[in-house]
Design a protein that fits this description.
Residues 4-155 form the NADPH-dependent FMN reductase-like domain. GO terms for molecular function: FMN binding; oxidoreductase activity. This is NAD(P)H-dependent oxidoreductase. The chain is globular and about 55 Å long. A five-stranded parallel beta sheet has the order 2-1-3-4-5, with helices on both faces. The protein has a single domain, classed as Rossmann fold (3-Layer(aba) Sandwich), CATH 3.40.50.360. It is of the alpha/beta class and 190 residues long. It is built from five helices and five strands; from the N terminus they run βαβαβαβαβα.
């Protein structure tokens, strides 16, 4: 049975560089892995009232429940994120917050995670990568510690076919995906 990898893209824009990187990265997973982008566009903003048993007039949104179940059924999660104002985009932080509750059933807990960050600048989303890693560390998520993937000048690496056009970048990401798959294998979820 194939290992299921959920890919979360930290950009809502259809033609975003993050989405293009994510789609190309999915192709680099080895046989035995099924990686798929799960959309976070329609997740309502996180509100603890939805998960507070004392609040009876605000039921948990169906989108929360469905998203949490997808994450719980995953063998790993790959985040592909741009950097917005030196941190992760609000849509991705919202997704992280949604699966951080309820406290008795945190969907992220122990889930192997990988992070690919990028920016159109030279630092490659360093700050967003570190911010996301910090947020995820709370959930004891096993991760590839080294290498880290910061793709700088990312817009210059996407060809007219919407794929990464730099062979050394492709091979670096392929190697990272292989390392991530080792973390998934070493930390079975199910």
């Amino acid at each position: 049975m194939a290992k299921k990898i959920t890919v979360l893209v930290g950009s809502l824009r259809r033609a975003s560089v993050a989405r293009k990187i994510a789609k190309h990265a999915i192709e680099l997973f080895p046989e035995g892995y099924e990686a798929e982008i799960v959309e976070i566009r329609d997740l309502p903003l996180y509100d603890f009232d939805y998960d507070d048993p004392a609040v009876t007039d605000k039921p948990t949104p169906e989108e929360y429940t469905k998203f949490r179940e997808i994450i719980k059924a995953s063998d790993g999660v790959l985040f592909v994120t741009p950097e917005n104002n030196r941190t992760i985009p609000a849509c991705l932080k919202n997704a992280v917050d949604i699966c951080s509750k309820p406290n008795s059933d945190v969907a992220w807990k122990g889930l192997p995670a990988g992070i690919i960050s990028h920016s159109i600048g030279k630092m490659g989303g360093y700050s967003s990568h570190k911010n996301l890693k910090l947020a995820l560390s709370y959930f004891a998520m096993p991760m590839v510690l080294q290498p880290e993937v910061f793709i700088g000048n990312s817009h210059d690496l996407i060809g007219e076919d919407d794929r990464i056009n730099n062979e050394s970048t492709i091979e670096f990401i392929r190697g990272y995906i292989a390392d991530f798959c080792q973390v998934v294998e070493a930390n079975p979820r199910h």
